[in-house]
Structure formats: C-alpha cells, structure tokens
DNA sequence: ATGAGTGATGGGACTTGGTCTCATCAACCG
DNA sequence: CGGTTGATGAGACCAAGTCCCATCACTCAT
C-alpha cells in the first residue's frame, strides 16, 4: 500500500474543522480544505462521501458498539438495561482528543442546517440500529422502538454533559439514562 | 399580485412528485421539474429553498398546529395529554388529497438518503417545537423532551397507519399514542 | 384610458459540490 | 529490475444553488 505523508484522512478532518471554525462551514470550499491538508479535491472525495461527512467519521463504529453490547446483554435484563449497556459500550471511543475537538465540532454543526440535518440522520441511524438489536432478542417491535428512542435521548444529553464536564462517559451516560427513566415515571405518574 | 397560470407552487409539487416516481429523485433535474410545470429553474428556487423542500411543504404549518394545541390545553391535563391534543390538532390537514399523494411521497423519500435526512430534520423540528411549548407551560425540561419524543414516535407510526388504512387521523393518532404509552409501561414494569 | 408601480417570472452568468476517467508515482514483490 | 498495486493528481463535466437584470401581467391613481 503506497503512501506518502501518512494519515491523509486525519489531516483532512483537522483542516476541515479548523477552517470551518475560522470562516464558517459554507464559506469553506472543499478544495480549500484539501489544499490545507496538502491534498486535492479528488482525494477528499475518495475519503469522504460528501463535504458534511468529514465531521461525522466513526459513527458507524459507534453503532456497531451499541448493537454488540445489546446482543451481549442477557435477555432477562430487559430492554432498558440493554440500552444502558449500549451507551456504556460507546465510552471506549470517548477519549481525551475527542473531548478537545468535540466542542469545536458541535459548535460548527449547530451553526449550519445541512450539518444539523446530517446529525439528525445519524441519530436516527443509531436508534434504528438499537431497535433492531432489541427486536433480535425478542423485544416487541414498539417496545424496542421506544427503548431505543429513550436511549438516544439520553445519549445526546449525556454527550453534551460530557463535553462540558469531561470525565467517564460511561458513568455519565448511565446517570443520564437514569434521569430519563425518572422523567418517564413522572410523566405517567402525574396524570 | 400579477399572476399568469395560477398555483405555480402546486404545479411544481405535482410535477416533482410525478417525475421522482417515474425516474427517481436523483435522476430528475430541477430544470426538468420546472419545465414540466411550465416554469423555469429560477422560479423553482423562488418557491422552494432547495430541491428536497418541494416534498416537505406545509410542515411549518403542522408545527404551528401542534404548539397551538399544546398552549390551548389546560395545564392540569399533564404533558402527555397536551401532546395528544397536539397530534389530534394536525388531523385537519390530513384530507383525501393528502392520503392519495402520501404513499407516493413516502416511497420517494424512503428511496433516497438526502430525503431521509431532510425528513429526520423535520421530525426533530416538531419535537423541539412541542418540547418548547411544554416548557412554556412549566413542564420541566427533561420531562418536556421525553414527552415530545414519545409524541413524535406516535405521530410517525400513526401517519404510517393512516396511509395504509385511511380514516380519521385524529383517532388513529390518539390510539397510537396510547400504544406508545402502554409500551413505556411495559418497559418500566418488566424489570 | 394611460402611465407608473408592483410582483412574479425568464434568462443567463457564475460558484461550488460531486462524479468520472485517465495519468502518475511511490512502495512492494518476485 | 520490471510488473503490480494502491493512493493520489489533474481536469472535464454535470447539476444544485445564487445573483442580477430584463420583462411581462396586473393594479391603481390620475
């Protein structure tokens, strides 16, 4: 496998993130990102499906961790326990370097509709993956969908908390899912 | 307000839907849609922000109906009752002509990633709108988010049911939300 | 009526995202 | 040392989306 400067992909991500922060997403051309990374437009699109995707790498890996954890949880534990295991399983990818870039990345996404759109699709993807994994364990369809949706809600809020405070993502996710479950109880109890 | 052939916007929607069904979304150029509608590319983009949006018109109106219904529900009724009112309130827009085009529209969306993306964003928009309306009534933040998310889940599933079976959308939505609530109970009860 | 104003449309130049094809060049292998 | 492989460069090409200006239909005041 021939290679000149290593980590072309990582260099593209870094260049994109910096340029987006400096000048905004829409004011940055793909050719410019490639240039800063010492590459060309052709190479950019060989590494990423489109301009948005440079900010969403590694999300397939997350989905795999989630479904793997659900499959590995004993069936007796119940759907929400499996979902909790799924969230905790993703913690291995939440290291120091992700923490430092995460806030920058989230700010860029928040400022652009195209990116919020892509983000929403990724979350739907997670929810579908978890729901499918639950159904494979015999969880009824609707129950699986509800559990997965609550899990994604906790995942997103846990991620926000983690970006602000740092620490162990697994622990934060567990606690946030607990908060969500408490909110569900409050909803049904209060009527 | 000068006008030649009336309903330019509606003609564009119809032309787009037909062409997307015939040849697929990605094989259809905006110029082609405009041509079939007796208009030009310029005019298309004057009516729709982008190519995707031609399939998602009127969704702002839906959000308005939802938030209006939530605001009009007595606070004592509780968040989920308000969400139910929000779903029922959208029923006024689910008439015969929407039923006939709905399945066609949904098939087109399902077959294309860009469109699934846009759809996901619209659903997030509904959820945020409902959650904000609930918070304005004093519902705690997380409770509002959970209630809104469950409502959107019911809305989507109810919409699918309605497309298959027809009938009164309000009634279907009410029933579907009931199913979701039962699933929530099963999740928490079964552990 | 007639002419000015208004709002919707046409038309075309232009930028950029994204695809495709072909040439190139570094490393590896026999 | 020559051939293969895999990543890259280069450039043509198409369609989405923006911009600007001309035009045409309709309205309204004089």
Largest sheet of chain A: none
Strand content of chain A: under 5%
Using the coordinates above, name the CATH class of the largest domain in chain A.
Answer: Mainly Alpha
Oligomer: homodimer
Number of domain units of chain A: 2
Shape of chain A: elongated
Q: Keywords for this structure?
A:
homodimer, 191 residues, mainly alpha, Arc Repressor Mutant, subunit A, Tetracycline Repressor, domain 2, 9 helices, DNA-binding
What does this structure look like?
- The structure is a homodimer of 191-residue chains.
- The N and C termini of chain A lie far apart (64 Å).
- The first copy, chain A, has 191 residues and is an all-alpha fold.
- Chain A contains nine helices and no strands.
- Chain A folds into two domains: 8-53, Arc Repressor Mutant, subunit A (Orthogonal Bundle); 58-187, Orthogonal Bundle (Tetracycline Repressor, domain 2).
- In chain A, α8 crosses α9 (169-189).
- Chains A and B meet through α5, α7, α8 and α9 of A and α5, α7, α8 and α9 of B.
- The structure holds a DNA duplex (30 and 30 nucleotides).
What's this entry about, in short?
Chain A starts with 7 loop residues before the first helix and ends with a helix. Chain A has 9 helices and no strands.
